[in-house]
TrEMBL record:
Taxonomic path: Bacteria, Bacillati, Bacillota, Clostridia, Peptostreptococcales
Taxonomic source organism: Romboutsia maritimum
Domain ParB-like N-terminal: 33-123
Primary localization: cytoplasm
Listed name of the protein: ParB/RepB/Spo0J family partition protein
One GO MF term: DNA binding
Similarity section: Belongs to the ParB family.
Domain of life: Bacteria
Biological processes annotated in GO: chromosome segregation; positive regulation of sporulation resulting in formation of a cellular spore
């Protein structure tokens, strides 16, 4: 059983190269056929539900001028139609361009593999919001028994980043919606996780959005509430040295959790936050891995 896990990870790490080469030149032309668009349909279980309309329009104009440069990948069904495995944006743009046909490569592979590849492909896109990213991570872990370590290797993100992103799904539902809509950031969400009471968590989230508090101010507010069970709007924080801020951000990216550097006249202090024992173990492992 253990031997199968690395094989799965390697396939996921290759993404769509498990199905089709990256460049048109590498595709054997005999494998490409033109399918009637009316016979092609999207996968209803596609993990990505939101498509950027402006980008679809840009792609539509490109297709009008140059055609579909890379074939979509489809799976045949029992009714003589074809479900999209990869290339839904090309399909949508082609419909918008009023094309009758679209170049395609047919692959008859199991639905389980299709879903795995779709999840990984979406994770490798840069325009996913943090909640979509968290749902995709959780879907792979829950349904395909991928460990966070394997997932980290497959998608090129640190294990603490994956852990902290998934934790966003523990937020109150309305706060999750606020992050998806862009009125709060993932950083705000992680700070709000300190507040256990869901009603108070939402109350503070709305206050943060309305008063446009920074992530750092939200962290101080959440800490104050978790310690004193009172709502106190923090005072504006004095601007830090730009070098210190840069180092904090770099360390935060390394450890996947908040890092605070305070600098005194004669000495300074580095604080690395963690939320559970697993996260502490991850941080200690990274600190000691060179020794």
């Amino acid at each position: 059983m253990d031997k199968k896990v690395p094989k799965r990870t390697n396939r996921l790490g290759r993404g769509l190269s498990a199905l089709i080469p990256d460049t048109k030149e590498e595709i054997d032309k005999k494998d490409i056929i033109n399918l009637e668009l009316d016979k092609v349909y999207p996968n209803e279980s596609q993990p990505r539900k939101v498509f950027n309309g402006d980008k679809i329009k840009v792609l539509c104009e490109s297709i009008k001028n140059y055609g579909v440069l890379q074939p979509i990948v489809v799976k045949p069904d029992e009714e003589g139609k074809y479900m999209i495995i990869a290339g839904e944006r090309r399909y949508r743009a082609s419909k918008m361009a009023n094309l009758k046909e679209i170049p395609a490569v047919i692959k008859d592979i199991p639905m389980r593999d299709i879903m795995e590849i779709a999840l990984i492909e979406n994770l490798q896109r840069e325009d996913l919001n943090s909640i979509e990213e968290a749902i995709a991570y959780k879907g792979l872990i829950d349904h395909y028994h991928v460990t966070q370590e394997e997932l980290s290797e497959a998608v090129g993100k640190s294990r603490p980043h994956i852990t902290n992103t998934i934790r966003l799904l523990n937020l109150q539902n309305e706060i999750i919606d606020m992050i998806e809509e862009g009125s709060l950031t993932a950083g705000h969400g992680k700070a709000l996780l300190r507040i256990v009471d869901k009603e108070k968590q939402l109350e503070i989230a709305k206050k943060v959005a309305e008063e446009e508090l920074s992530v750092r101010e939200t962290e101080r507010l959440a800490k104050s509430i978790s310690e004193n069970n009172e709502i106190k709007i923090p005072k504006k924080i004095k601007e830090k040295d730009i070098f210190i801020v840069d180092v904090e951000e770099r360390l935060t990216n390394v450890f996947g959790t908040k890092v605070n550097i305070s600098k005194g006249k004669k000495k300074g202090k580095i604080e690395i936050e963690y939320y559970d024992d697993d996260e502490l173990n991850n941080i200690v492992s990274m600190l000691l891995e060179e020794h």
